[in-house]
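tool_call: predict_structure(chain=1)
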Amino acid sequence: MKSTKSQKLRSLLFRGLLVLAPVAANVSCSNDVSGIGSSLVTDKSEITVDSAFTITGKSVATTELRARTLSQLIGNIDARNYGSLTSDFVTQFMPAANIDTVKIDPANVDSIKLLLSFYGNTITGDSMTPMGIKVFALNRQLPSVLSSSFDPSGYYDSSKPLSSTIYSSNLLYSDSLENNATHGIVTKLPVSIGRDLITEYNSNPATFTTPYGFADFFPGIYVSNSFGSGRVTNIFNTRLDIYYHYPAKYTNTLDEERDTVYYTLSTIAMATPEVLTNNNMRFNIAPELSSLAADNTIAVSPLGYEPQITLPVREILSSYRNASSSSMVVVNSLTLRLPVDTIANDYGINPPSHVLLIPASQRDAFFDQQKVPDNVTSFLADYSSATKSYYFSNLRPYIMDIINSGKSEAEIDELSTLAIVPVEVTSETTEATYYTSSVSIVTAVGPHIEGPAMCKFDLDNAKIHFTYSSEKINF
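tool_result:
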């Protein structure tokens, strides 16, 4: 009983001192907080910031990516110190749930167009270069599991393209507007497709209730490169628009009723996260990058290399256990800063905008199961152009999970090997109210398909800061 009371008293005193007492911090050593609380008890309270850790890493080749993503990459590029990348894509469509059949009659359909939208700042390469695409109808269902190495041969008739067009990203815009403008690649499909879709909706509206039912009727499209090189474009929105007319009446300023015809459009289907869409990519890495990867830790995406680092988890645990053997210890924080260097190239290829930190053994399952970071074993960091680094500010749950779960040495070693994966992040922002601020919520994370990206990690200057509070109480 006496021991239990003593433990409770020590715990209460420790918590009170951590909240009320100013403390001094140091790096890789400890300083006493002298004089604080000495009138109450004779004790020592201190905060320790341990940064005497080293990080090792290597470059791991990534020859294949598996993910559903809304980013559809089209084009090809050959960049110095990067390599040659070619990408085209296949996609199914999510149908519109409601169609105004009073106004949209098969006979009133004038045309149907495929619109591929992109931002001016999501291209890599020469914005002036004319590029061409061809669009084909898929003639059978896509496999349920797709990857970047998927070969669409056999899923379309190469002798029967639906349409083709030539496009350029800034034929109509000045360079000063390029980064702000939303552009579209528009190509007209056979009008019979639009009329068949409306006829199907009138006859079997259930076809339009699920993406699976719609895919049975219209399996999707394959979009391939047909002309030009020197640019890849990241498509953020792919949709089918039906253009149609319908008769109506209106009343003029003299209160006279007149006949008229309205011309308008309606989006009948769109590529969404719920449907299958896949970038079919081929990448030949530059010899210079391969040589660099042999002795350095680099990231090259969409395909190429991913960094794999080893965190000194055993040393961090040793620091914690040594302190807790004779004191009461609370882990305050664990942070990680990873500086990077850009790799010289002739197309302005920069570091990935986001990276995912996750145990290497859990990497594939994370994407296969379309997870989002749980901030316990998987974490996101944005690239900071100001500090030229990725900063993980809250890895405390990661180390606390290891401390509290009683993992074996083998399990600790497995969790110490972490993959750094370039990723795309989709988020939604809640609206701010009078009482609350807006909050951004990550809704989806997938492998980086937005366009070429690369950098070299400077692990010699990487920093881990492990901070804990400890207190010794003398009775």
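agent: The chain has two domains: 21-60+286-474, 83-283. Proceeding to next step.
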